[in-house]
Each structure stands twice: as C-alpha cells, then as structure tokens.
From TrEMBL:
Keyword tags: ATP-binding, Membrane, Nucleotide-binding, Transmembrane, Transmembrane helix
UniProt cross-references to Pfam families, sorted A to Z: ABC_tran (PF00005), MlaE (PF02405)
All residue ranges annotated as the ABC transporter domain in the record: 19-255
Natural source organism: Novipirellula caenicola
Keyword Nucleus: no
Molecular function, one GO term: ATP binding
UniProt similarity note: Belongs to the ABC transporter superfamily.
This protein's record includes keyword NAD: no
Protein name: Vitamin B12 import ATP-binding protein BtuD
Entries under PROSITE patterns matching the protein: ABC_TRANSPORTER_1, ABC_TRANSPORTER_2
InterPro entries recorded: AAA+_ATPase, ABC_transporter-like_ATP-bd, ABC_transporter-like_CS, ABC_transpr_LolD-like, P-loop_NTPase, Permease_MalE
Annotated transmembrane regions: 282-300, 320-344, 364-386, 418-439, 480-501, 513-538
Amino acid sequence: MSLDKEWDASAVAGEGLPLRLIDLQIQVADRVLIRDTSLTIPAGKITVIVGASGAGKSVLLRTLAGLLRRDDEAISWQGSIVIGHDDPMQNRRNGLLTRVGIVFQQFALFDELSPTGNVQFAIDHRSDPSAPPSQSARDWVDELGVPAHTSVSALSGGQKQRLAIARTLAAAPDVLLYDEPTSGLDSASGRKVAELIRHTQTIHRTTSIVVTHDYLTLLPIADEVLLLDSQTSRLIRIEQDQWDQISTRMQPVALADNTSDDDPATRMSRYTRLARQRVDDFFTATGSAIWTAMALPFELRPYFPHFRWGMRFVLHYLRLVGGPSAWFYLILAGMIIGFTSTYFTFEFLPFQAYTQPLLIDELLASIGFALYRILVPVLATILIAARCGAAVAADVGVKRYGGQVDALQTLGVKPRTYLLLPIVIAFVIATPMLEWMSLSAAKLISLVTFLSTHPNEGPYFWQQNFYRNLAAIDGSLLRGWQWVLTKNLICGFGIACIAYYQGLAPKKSANDVSGAITSTVLWTTLYVLIVHFVTALIEF
Ligand SMILES: Nc1ncnc2c1ncn2[C@@H]1O[C@H](COP(=O)(O)OP(=O)(O)OP(=O)(O)O)[C@@H](O)[C@H]1O
C-alpha cells in the first residue's frame, strides 16, 4: 500500500492520530540502526515493534518520543516524524497540539510524589490545557488498580507499571509508546500486562506502539507488527499470516568484530583512546556547564507552567539545600572558626604581658573584620558548595539516570523550569541564610572564648571592639554588607548552575551519577575560591 493510501485509511478510522515516518535514518556512532524507512503507523491501533536484543528498538522509541536531538554525538537521526497532518500549521488550525507519551521500561515515576500526585502532575501538564481533563487523578489510579495512599517506592513492579500507564494516559497523548513493557516479568504477569495494554487501548483509543523482543506475549494484542530487521536495518511490516515466521526472521544482532587484546599496540591505542575520551567528556560536561551558566541569566525567566508545582519543587530544593543538616555543618564551621581565630590570636601574641594591653582592642577589631568580611564567607560558601552542591547534583543525577528528566520532557515540561529555576531560587535564599547562621555561631563563640581567656574584660568591651571596623556610619547594617552579600549570591548562583548541569548530563550508569557528584564538588569549590579571590582584589 502506498504511503498516501495508508494515511487515508488511518484518517478515516478517526481514532487517535497516525504517526508517519518519512525517510527515517538513525545511527549510533558508525552503526546504522534504521536505514531510510518510510511508513505509517495507523491511528487508534496497537502496533508491536519486534526486534532482536540490541537492534535499536529503545533508541527508535526515544527518537519517536522526541527525546533525542538530531545531531547528538552518540546517536543521530535524519528524516521526519509526523503526527497527524504533515503541515504543523494545519495541525494548529485543527486545534491539534500533538504529544507523544511514553511508558518507560524503568517506569520513571516521581518518587517524591504520591501515586495520585504523579497522575495529577500529568493532568496539570496535559497536551491541551484548555480541554477539561477526561477524569480525576483518583479515577485514573482506581481505574488502573493502583493503591492511592502507598508511597511510590513501596509499590510492586506491576503496580508501578500500571501507575506509569495511568500517568502517561492522563496527559492525553496522541500517541502512546511502551518500552519493553513485559521485560523482567514471568509469563503470567507478562500476559496480564498485555491484557492491560489492550484494555486501556480499547477504552481510550490512543494510537499505541509497543516495542519488545517478547513477541510471544504481545502478539495476541497486536493489530499490526513491524520487525526491526537487524540485517537490513529496516522496519518491515509483517502481515498477519506471516506472524508465525517472526522467530526465524528475527536475526540476532551481529557483534562488532573485537580486535584481540593480545596485541599490546592495539591494547595501548584503545587505552589511549579511552583516556582521551574520558578527558574529553569531563571537559565537555564542565565546559558546557560553565558556558550555559554564563548564558543562563538571559534564558532564565521566573516562569513556572504551574505555580503550585513550581513552588513544590522550590520547597523540595530549599529543604535539600537549606535544611537542618546544612545548619549543623554551617554552625559547627562557624563555631570552629570563631574559636580558633579568637583563641590563637591572643594565645600566640609575642611578649604577651606587654603587647596585649596595648593591642587587645585592635586585635578584637581585626578578628571581627576578618570573620565578617573574609573567613566566614569563604568557609561557609566552600561548605555550601561541597555539601549542598553534591546533594543537588545527586538529586538531579538520579532523576536523569532514573528517567524522570525524560518523563518531564515527554509531559511537555522543560527540565530547567521545574529543576534549574527552583534550584537557583533555593540557593539564592539558602546561601545568605546559612552564612548568617555560620557568622552568628562564630561571633557567639568568639565572645565566649574572649570572656573565658580575658575574665577581666566584659561582653561590652568585646562588642565595642569586635564591631569597630564594621560599624556603619548610620548605625544600620554592618559596613561592607554589600560585598558580603554580592560574593554570597554570586557563589550561590554559580553552585546552583554547576550542580544542575553536572546532574543533568547524560547518565548511562550509577557510576556516572557518582562521577557527576565528584565533579560538582571539585568545580563548585574551585569556582567559589575564584569568586572570593577576584572579589577580594576589587573589594580591598
Ligand atoms: N546513549 C547511547 N550511546 C551510545 N550507544 C547507545 C546508546 N543507547 C543505545 N546505544 C546502542 O544502540 C544499540 C541499540 O540499543 P537499544 O537499547 O535501542 O537496543 P534494543 O533493541 O532496545 O535492545 P534490548 O531489547 O536488549 O533492550 C546498542 O548497540 C546500544 O549499545
């Protein structure tokens, strides 16, 4: 059947939207996974795409879901993917705001939200916000049989999968993709999942594409079958009378010819290439983080698609960055620096008996100045960089690795609106607050130390001299507060950006998450030191 005829047949069906591939080609590095493929996936039906392990089914699905850029270094694609009409203007005129939803193999649920919260998030970000939602979040979880009051992490694998389907459907996608929905399930559970897919498709009539190598479980619910042929790298439609030949036509993917490790020269060149790749990756991730951080003020608008969800993310990151465990660190650091600066200044004064009476007020004034303008700001921001930067990089890194960032994107949400903006807001609020706590602790311990080492002097003496170099002329804020606040905010903003971009960089394994945390600690502390060094040159 010609493409146009297929298209007409789909349009006549009038249910869901067809998806059309035109000259689609996908390659991973030098290997072509899909070559010049043009076909139409019919509207309102279940199309099962089968293929051997490693043939490229998941990469195809991610391409269809709009999760892969055309010119990505690792995976690139050419051609067009059209949902509904060819002409996007025509789509818009017909009120079509196309959306592809995906039920991820690892579910990619938002762990910090309840099951109903996950679905409500999808409803609030549905493809057409002007149309009323088809049903409430509670109705969705009830329909799919998910316990509403159990936390997401405590749900069983099957319940998580049903919740993932409910969340995806609640966003009213035009095309619904399932990535290996039966992987890791026994045959009875696999059959149940297949029935669930058929059941939801019968009720909601969404165009559904199921990608699997478990064709035996999923063929019974298929309306159409496409084979991703690893020999020819083409998607081939298999007519129903040939479905029994699938097992013979599904050829295993030919493994790349690995050159023997025995040759030391080859081994060496591979190690060199790997090492160079690692160094490249490191500087690319860091360089792009710095570059994007510089461009950020121009891109970042204080805009949340939904204020309520935006505030929820802000509170989440405020707890992470400025919560009680951070208070403990910063207060302890303030106490240590307040004690050491006061105690050792007087303890190691040469010719104490003579010099101390002459210098005591000057020394106290210097301690006050140094603590307020330099020591506490440097120490506090380094600790914030290491502790809070690492916490945020871990949070975003896990969201990236666990697929939640992809889930946000398929729900039409740019990660920077619900992740980056809240992270920046959290750091801009929490960094001055934490530094103030650290300074308060330093001052208190300095006073206590001074009183215990100089019992003849009272707190009034300490106070008068400690603030002598800092007293503002009009008696309001301490002198130089603008510098302290400026350094503090520049540090907070930069730490937020570095942690976010390190966390957001692609993650193939848990190792990559820990790599992002380490890089964040390294780069944020270096960044903070540079900020203090540069501002000190200007400030003093
Ligand atoms: N991000 C990536 N970077 C580099 N190569 C990748 C990436 N993702 C996938 N690949 C490669 O693309 C090929 C196809 O992978 P894909 O995961 O799509 O296979 P699949 O058909 O889904 O296999 P399975 O059924 O085992 O999940 C594999 O060789 C894989 O190593």
